[in-house]
Amino acid sequence: MHPMKTQLTELARGLRDLHKQLIHLETQYFGAVGSPLEHLQLITNHPHFAWLQKLSGLMTQLDERLDDAEPVTLEEAKAFRQSLEMLIGPCEEGDTEFRAKYNALLHDGPELVMAHGAVRRLLAAIA
Q: So which domain of life are we looking at (predicted)?
């Protein structure tokens, strides 16, 4: 496997864990959700979870790119890194609305902090 594709595959895995932790914490704040199908519908349609769609969208783009047979270029990897850093940091001119909600949740869950650290390390390796 091409080195950039390997790095982005690891990043995609890390992002799935991060996303899962974010959904878990947001669900705790939301309250009872019912069945798994009702939970999925809430995550995709309810305004409480809408801010997560920015991260979900980037994850989808990354997965689609990884499914492509063409080798991933360093420029593409850097573009994904920059887009993610606009959301989760450390990019100063990032998405302030997303970042505010994200940073607030970072204080509430050690599992989220661990997932965040893992993604930050993976992003830092893309140079």
A: Bacteria
Distances (CA, A) of 90 to 22, 32, 61, 72, 81: 18, 33, 21, 24, 11
Taking the C-alpha atoms of residue 104 and residue 93, their distance in angstroms, rounded to an integer, is 18
End-to-end CA distance of the chain: 18
How far is 124 from 118, CA to CA, in rounded Å? Answer: 10
- Distance CA(29)–CA(38), nearest Å, equals 16
